Amino acid sequence: MDSVQPKFLLVDEDDQILGVCLDAEGVFVEPTESDEDLTVEILGCSLAQRLRDYLEGSKRYRQRNPLDSLWLRMLDMAGEPLVDFWAGEILEWRPSRLDPERVDIVALWGLDSPSAGARDVWERWRSARPDQLNQWAVYGPEGRREWLTIVGRSKFRRAGGLDRLPGCVYHLDGTHVTDEAAFYLAIGEAINGPGGYFGWNLAALDDCLRGRFGARTPFTLVWSDSQVARRSLTRASEEADDAPAFFEIVQTIFGERDVDVVLR
Fold first, then answer.
1. What percent of the chain has pLDDT over 70?
2. For residues 183 and 151, is the Cβ–Cβ distance under 8 A?
3. Residue 246: how many other CB atoms lie within 10 Å
4. How confident is the model over 199-222, as a mean pLDDT?
5. Residue 1: band (very low, low, confident or very high) from pLDDT cuts 50, 70, 90
6. Cis peptide before 100, with omega less than 30 degrees from 0?
7. Residue 244 contacts residue 236 (beta carbons within 8 Å)
8. pTM for the structure as a whole
9. What is the overall mean pLDDT for the chain?
């Protein structure tokens, strides 16, 4: 069983590895209006001594040695970190049904779990990180939002927060920018390449334009096929009749942050 590639790690608030786990069930959650607690079953875990002592210890021991935060870290096929999910209280543990030398753990779940309807997007990322632009374009709005969630939540996506020097020219491919998630995916890839991040909402976009996310202003953004977004991104940020459309708001933010946008 040791030859099986683990899919998850258990880590604590200090990023220390508490367990190496072969699989998990219940990670992807169907939407529900029920107040019933959700659980995740984390399978085939080889435990670090700290977590084993915590599980095997008395109630008094656990009170004196609390496990304040537990995170389930999804790994890709290469064993590299993808995204961390918060896991709640451990409810039970037992010898693993995958390997009796390992442990299965049941914990509370659901606070920030991925949608069952977007499982294929996560599996796409797990199998291989994006290596070409617009690989998200085949998905509908829900899939694009989930793709953006992965891009936005992965703290492993940036290499030191290094910015290229001011004066650079970036090219945004607007062919598939038919919704807001697509815009953020396209601008992320224009600045940081396939799977790149450069904001997930207007506030985050403005924050990225202040530096530490790959680009430093002033710079030039050449936006090809911009008419696609102009036609599609018409939602206003306010309900007022004269409120600007999303496309116009984005242009305003770029202008305020010294970005020269060339619409083509």
1. 94
2. no
3. 18
4. 96
5. very low
6. no
7. yes
8. 0.89
9. 92
Rounded Cα gap, residues 173 and 183, in angstroms: 10
What DSSP string describes 23-75?
EEES-SB------PPEEEEEEEEEEPHHHHHHHHS-HHHHHHS----EEEEEE
Quick one: tokens of 245?
Answer: 């459309």
Radius of gyration of the chain (CA): 22
C-alpha distances (whole Å) from 115 to each of 109, 147, 232 are 13, 11, 25
Instruction: For residues 163 and 216, give the distance between their C-alpha atoms in angstroms, rounded to a whole number.
Output: 6
- Tens digits of residue pLDDT in 35-92: 788 999 999 999 999 999 999 999 899 889 888 789 999 999 999 999 999 998 899 9
Burial of 104 (0-12, 13-18, 19+ CB in 10 A): buried
> Distance (Å, rounded) from C-alpha 2 to C-alpha 137?
38
| Angle (deg, nearest 10), helices 141-153 and 180-192 | 40
81 three-state secondary structure: strand
Closest CA to 224 of 135, 139, 134, 152: 134
